[in-house]
Target: Enoyl-CoA hydratase/isomerase family protein
Amino acid sequence: MSESILATVEQGVARLTFNRPTRLNAMDFDMGTRWRDLAHQVTDDPAVEAIILDAAGPAFCAGGDVIMMATSGATGDQVTETAHVIHDGIRTLAHSAKPIVAAVQGAVAGGGIGLMLTADYVVASEKASFVSKYANIGLTPDLGVSTLLPAAIGQRRALQLLLQDRAIDAATALEWGLVAEVVAPDALADRAAEIARFWMAGATAAFGQAARLVRVGAERDLAANLDDEARTIGAAFATDESKTRVAAFAASARSSARPTNEGTAR
Model:
């Protein structure tokens, strides 16, 4: 049996690939556990500097595997327990100091939206589409949707998706701020990889900490955020990488500000 989520680490980039294409990459109980375990694995791995989240097949993720839940005799308590497991993985990735880009190639439904928004930067194919469908089957948002979706597009637009049987296309998702970029289908994988390489070519730790500060900051008061910012920038400033980059920036700024003798009278 193939793994429900494929995981590789190559040249500092961890790639997590949803791999249940025949079920539109919907999460069953086992996949939820693997998601949580891989989230801890890649965020704890010092060799990982950036993360790509993508999927096999025509869809990105249809959320939870409702068919499995309906036919397996699962109880409400089991669904709650599994939601907690998946939420652990979401929280671990979203609060990590490693930047994440999601490559979204097709349909994203229900909890798949929350999994997608675990990423700091979302690139979507022109063929991507986004829909809630929770209330249609008598369920309520999970997998971070009630928090991450309004944070991305605002409360009113989030409610439009959650309270209406409405799907939006990639162009609308870009306009709303649900995704950061829309590209041709055959350019999606390369663009996601390019973004990860951009982070790694720069101060990747600083990019990751910036993402973490924004994510965690949404959940705390201003005083706690200011304390975290002060600690984080001080720790960053003390690193060799930052010292080198700050020195180069200062030298460039001094050079740009230096007056020239051109045009002066002698």
The two ends are 83 Å apart (CA to CA). Confidence is low (pLDDT under 50) at residues 262-266.
